[in-house]
User: Fold Glucose-1-phosphate adenylyltransferase from Gracilibacillus boraciitolerans JCM 21714.
Amino acid sequence: MKKECVTMLLAGGVGKRLGLLTQNIAKPAVPFGGRYRIIDFTLSNCLNSRMYTVGVLTQYSPPLELHKHIGVGKPWDMDRMEDGLTILSPFTVNDGGSWYLGTADAITKNINYIEGYDPEYLIVLSGDHIYHMDYTKLLQQHKEKGADVTISAIEVPWEETSRFGILNTTDDLKIYQFEEKPMKAKNNLASMGIYIFNWKILKDYLEDDATNNNSNHDFGQDILPAMIENNLSLYAYRFEGYWKDVGTINSYWEAHMDLLEDHLPFSLNNDEWRIYSHDSNFSPQLIDKNTSIHHSLVNNGCVISGTIDHTVLFENVEIKKDAIVKESILLPGVRVGENAFLQRVIVQENVTIPANTRIIANSDSEPVVLSNENLESIS
Assistant:
């Protein structure tokens, strides 16, 4: 079956900088926004953009929770017979299995899957960013420019440029240099890890890269610089909306606090660009008469008898009488005991905070992540 465009979603990030949050689950499966997981945002973008042929590339232990969550893609209307969503785990022909060596190698090892659809274009996405984006607009610019490659880009704070691939462009956004995580960047236009390639051109570069023993087999370090050196036509697509790389504890916490802003150009309540996920079917929330709630997200199954302020509660969270929770994120199943006080903390799933516990992270330090293993030592 021929498809104009095939989407490959890279969902294999190790997520080491998220610490305890990725100790037992893959980064794209980390809960986000009260009832979602990080990967839901990219998958929902695919659905809203009518990109239904999606290969999800997973690796690193443990992927079980991620595979279970994705399933056959039903929440995103991708449980289809002829295309839809396909999980593509690492494999090799000779020894049966190996990790993907890099982002480019992940695509190379799945050339047969892509070739089965004989596409004109290949979209490569990352599964660990929070944003709304219509990929058809990206594809439209790619066609209008007659580009070989289009890279979606956004301006980031100058102090964060060393975390990203930086695009140096002419006034018409033609890319003449790609700097992967430079220590001293020339500008702050950063790659979002969203690429559109003319498939036949990319395939040739991937096959050549696979035979290069000195390559990192990575788009940012190898494939894109090689294409620029060979004078291919690469353009940036300037993205103006909200986009967050939630790769650190700080950025994960900040992204949740962003959801509580009054005028953020990004909303979980956007009926024109909905975010889809599994429905856990918890009962409605129960708010006690003595409860005080200020500017917070409260989800199904929650029972609140205390005070919450600028806080995100995932499903099935309980806040006992006289407990106070501020500027925090409580993942599913958390229990907060009476008279407890929490500020700037992230509490992992099913953790019980004992009564009278007091934990506060300073505003100039990283939020505290609480688990059953470290709770006693921190409190």
In short: Residues 199-210 form the longest helix (12 residues). The two ends are 58 Å apart (CA to CA).
